[in-house]
């Protein structure tokens, strides 16, 4: 047997290996390991170089950015060309940032949140400057949002500028204190007061009318009024027969009496001289009788005890004593507005605010709506700015049946009001309001967040976010309640 042995594994080292062989074996093992490492490295290097080459060969974005709409996707620095434009164009791009403002002429309202500056408003000034085509205004918002407070500030702050204020019917009686504070007249109507207004009064005669024109105007006004009152009680339009009966009764009354009053008209309707009209006017007569002998007696059925003083800075009719019943209220408003109308419709009467607070109560009555609509259309001619205060724009949609005249009248009231002041709205109202006014998504989002006294003013297509600011005296005088206890929210 030789000294050499066969080894099945390197783990088993020969027992008597010579040093020389051991060294040679270790060196051979090291050489194998080194060769293997070199091969792995070389392979990794080749793969890396191939990756790099592939990456270099692929084009993701052109160095100068892509042409066309994707131009902003550039690996390099973003550079934009300078752009200059008119504020009208910018107002379209950034509706809340680039509003040029309405100028400084007008009544101070408060702070404009977008510009931080003072917000002033005066419908006559805006009308003269061609920014609006009619000076009418609607104010909408939830209870306690500050709608009445704004209307009161707007009116009272206008008085020093020579404007006068008429409130043809105040169902809550909240304008009484305001009228008295500015040296105006508040006429309280209702049971328990001795005040009477005769809606058939001729009223002050406008300058520039001859006798014949004046007679025709007064006759037309009286006919309209008596017709509207009858329609409100009957809850339908007059028939041609009733029309004639009313007309004859009115003409006879006016011919016979120096001061015609409603009871005379009712008498003549129920017992006309021409007995063929007895049947025709019977229903109308009984309808009108409500104002004379029914629950509304004692307010509009005698000669006026108060004279309309067109020079007073503010006149309000306080209907709070009779405000529970909407039909009654609407009749009173109709009489009251007719009584005021004679003075209102004087083109030389100066610039006047006519304020319909809590107007949603009046919307249910087409006859009253028709009168209001007529006033709104004539607003420019007579120098009147009408203000309609209600809760939500959909109040106007709830008037009458779909497609009815009343609905059309209500929509035309809104269409004729180019200033819409929207206070906080209930969530379910956001959609309809935004659609009606064409609000942007941002504006719509704001509507449910507005705090007390904050409103979105839409003047034609322009928008302003305004906080109405009040001085302590106003707060004390205009305060209606502390029901909500809501604090003013700060906008950043
Ligand atoms: N801009 C305002 N700043 C502080 N208080 C206000 C403001 N606007 C209204 N208020 C207060 O909020 C209360 C309710 O306002 P009001 O105008 O009667 O609400 P609305 O008519 O919308 O129901 C009032 O007491 C009023 O003093
Ligand atoms: Mg109110």
UniProtKB/TrEMBL annotation:
GO molecular function: ATP binding
Keyword entries, A-Z: ATP-binding, Nucleotide-binding
Highest taxon above the source species: Bacteria
InterPro entries named in the record: P-loop_NTPase (IPR027417), T4SS_component (IPR051162)
Name of the protein described by the UniProt record: ATP-binding protein
Phylogenetic lineage: Bacteria, Bacillati, Actinomycetota, Actinomycetes, Micrococcales
């Amino acid at each position: 047997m030789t000294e050499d042995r066969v080894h099945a594994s390197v783990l088993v080292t020969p027992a008597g290996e010579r040093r020389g062989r051991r060294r040679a074996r270790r060196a051979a093992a090291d050489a194998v390991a080194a060769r293997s490492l070199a091969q792995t490295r070389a392979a990794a290097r080749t793969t890396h170089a191939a990756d790099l080459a592939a990456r270099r060969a692929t084009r993701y974005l052109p160095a100068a950015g892509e042409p066309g709409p994707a131009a902003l996707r550039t690996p390099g620095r973003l550079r934009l060309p300078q752009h200059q434009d008119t504020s009208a164009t910018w107002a379209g791009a950034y509706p809340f940032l680039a509003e040029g403002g309405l100028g400084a002429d007008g009544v101070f309202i408060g702070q404009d949140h977008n510009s931080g500056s003072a917000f002033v408003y005066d419908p006559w000034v805006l009308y003269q400057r061609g920014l609006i085509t009619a000076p009418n205004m609607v104010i909408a918002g939830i209870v306690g949002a500050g709608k009445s407070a704004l209307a009161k500030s707007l009116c009272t702050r206008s008085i020093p500028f020579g404007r006068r204020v008429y409130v043809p019917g105040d169902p809550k009686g909240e304008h009484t204190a305001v009228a008295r504070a500015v040296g105006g007249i508040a006429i309280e109507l209702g049971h328990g007061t001795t005040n009477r207004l005769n809606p058939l009064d001729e009223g002050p005669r406008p300058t520039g009318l001859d006798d014949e024109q004046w007679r025709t105007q007064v006759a037309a006004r009286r006919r309209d009024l008596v017709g509207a009152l009858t329609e409100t009680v009957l809850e339908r339009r007059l028939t041609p027969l009733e029309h004639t009966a009313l007309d004859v009764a009115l003409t006879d009354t006016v011919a016979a009496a120096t001061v015609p009053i409603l009871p005379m008209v009712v008498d003549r309707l129920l017992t006309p001289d021409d007995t063929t009209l007895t049947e025709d006017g019977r229903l109308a007569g009984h309808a009108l009788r409500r104002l004379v002998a029914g629950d509304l007696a004692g307010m509009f059925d005698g000669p006026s005890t108060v004279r309309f003083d067109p020079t007073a800075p503010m006149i309000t009719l306080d209907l709070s004593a009779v405000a529970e019943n909407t039909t009654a209220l609407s009749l009173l408003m109709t009489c009251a507005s007719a009584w005021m109308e004679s003075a209102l419709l004087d083109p030389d009467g100066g610039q006047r605010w006519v304020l319909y607070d809590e107007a949603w109560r009046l919307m249910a009555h087409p006859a009253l709506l028709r009168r209001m609509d007529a006033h709104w259309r004539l607003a420019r001619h007579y120098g009147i700015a009408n203000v309609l205060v209600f809760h939500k724009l959909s109040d106007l949609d709830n008037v009458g049946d779909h497609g009815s005249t009343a609905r059309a009248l209500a929509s035309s009231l809104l269409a004729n009001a180019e200033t819409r002041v929207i206070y906080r709205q209930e969530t379910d109202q956001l959609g309809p309001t935004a659609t009606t006014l064409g609000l942007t998504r941002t504006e719509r989002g704001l509507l449910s967040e507005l705090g007390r006294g904050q409103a979105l003013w839409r003047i034609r297509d322009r928008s302003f976010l305004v906080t109405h600011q009040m001085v302590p005296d106003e707060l004390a005088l205009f305060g209606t309640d502390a029901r909500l206890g809501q604090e003013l929210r700060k906008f950043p």
